[in-house]
Amino acid sequence: MVREIENAAGIPVVQIATIVPIMLTVGANRIIPGVAIPHPVGDPSRGREGDRAVRRDILERALRAIQTPIEEQTIFTA
Amino acid sequence: MSKRVVCYINQFFAGIGGEEQAHIPPSSRSETVGPAMQIQNILGNEAEIVGTVICGDSYYGEHLESARSACTELIAAFKPDLLIAGPAFNAGRYGVACGDICGAVSETLGIPALTGMYPENPGVELYRSKTYIVPTADSARGMKDALSAISLLAMKILKGTELGAAADEGYISRGIRKNFFHETNGARRAVDMLLKKINGESFVTEYEMPVFKRITPAKPVKDLKRATIALVSSGGIVPRGNPDHIRVSSAESYGVYDISKLDDLTPEIFESIHGGYDRVWANEDPDTVLPLDVMRDMEKEGVFGKLYDYVFTTTGTGTAVANAERFGQEIGERLKNDGVDAVILTST
Q: How many Å from the N-terminal Cα to the C-terminal Cα in chain B?
């Protein structure tokens, strides 16, 4: 799905998920490792504010990823 | 009584001519022509080749539907028990014609059909689910081996022998899985494979992973402050009650939901219906999977231009690759038309 959206729309698609090898396999180009499979963009164990802070951090990274020129599949870890 | 076999070949193997004769329309002869003679030798008394149907490769390729129905009619007239097409080796048009006529004959006449091709012939990917395709060399230099492999499989099929795994029987996997009881259980077999892998020995997987395509990365967003960003998720977050009845696994559809008036996905209005992970956290706060709340914060702060008014969601567990690709193509097309500049896609 991620690859076909990027292909059809011609716009960068960043995928956030926990199992990086799967994202590499399905052909995602901009990849961000998520927190956990059931909550990729949050960490409920850190309480309401902590959860939002984690989400903010990952989404800011996602915004950096879509502004970054890349030549091949790239994992944005920080 | 011996079984009746019809062969399908192109203009070249019929001895009519090469490329300059590739336009010839379908015809039939009640005799063995070209490779059919050798096949008859191998089949011996088990089966008789009662006719050969011939069609030019370009003709078949350019008139797919009419060539298919004309050839099927010519083949049906011989009242065969089995069709053998080709072998096509690595000839693309011939491979497509062989695969297509085999698929059509199996389906409309209800008789088995088989052909032979080089594994990289485009006809393989197109038709392997519809017919038996014996792997061959890439050129007619491999004719002898190809014909004996095809004939052996043909005899097995004609005798009604139950076929085992594709690799054991000598044809290219059709993607059909059969259930049976194995003498050792799955855990034992998996550990055996793992040990072989660790020891660098060869082993055969019981479940081949699909091969995925790659695309060149899209150009980055130039001006984030003016960019429209869309949220997409395969994490199964939908409005409470799942109004579009998206399946909890093996999804065949996706939902499009208006979030233009929402700042937060709360459990009162959204839920997870995904069948492949523990939904406790997603149901307490759907934003942990589909992060609307923080995206809205950043939009208001002017970090980026605008959050697209709709989210697209499905469940990405057991979903057929072909369906996932179709969802992506449709979503991508819509985002392009609506001038969206980038997508954040979350998966569980």
A: 60
CA distance, residue A70 to nearest chain B CA (Å): 7
Contacts of A51 in chain B (CB under 8 A): 285, 288
Domain ranges of chain B: 3-169, 224-346
> Which candidate from B212, B289, B325 shows the least CB-CB separation from A41?
B289
* DSSP class per residue in A32-43: EE-S-TT-TT--
User: What is the rounded CA–CA span in Å between residue B255 and residue B110?
Assistant: 39
Q: Which residue has the tokens 């990274």?
A: A61
Cα dist. B194→B5, B190, B204, B277 in Å? 45, 6, 11, 26
User: For B73-86, what is the mean pLDDT?
Assistant: 97
- Measure the CA angle with vertex A54, ends A50 and A55; round to 5°: 115
pLDDT at B237: 98
pLDDT tens-digit readout, B253-287: 999 999 999 999 999 999 999 998 999 999 999 99
CA distance to partner chain B, nearest, from residue A15 (Å): 5
Out of B217, B294, B348, closest to residue A59 by CB: B294
Q: What is the mean pLDDT of chain B?
A: 94
Q: Which residues of B touch A5 (CB under 8 A)?
A: 232, 328-329, 331-332, 335, 343, 345
Name every residue whose Cβ is closer than 8 Å to that of residue B186 and which is 6 or more positions away in sequence.
none
Per the CB < 8 Å rule, is A16 touching B347? yes
- The CATH fold assigned to B3-169 is Rossmann fold (3.40.50)
- Tens digits of residue pLDDT in A11-38: 999 999 998 888 888 899 999 999 999 9
Query: CB distance B218–A69 less than 8 Å?
Result: no
Q: Which of B54, B138, B146, B147 is nearest to B92 (CA)?
A: B138
Cα Rg for chain A, rounded, in angstroms? Answer: 13
In this prediction, residue B1 carries a pLDDT of: 57
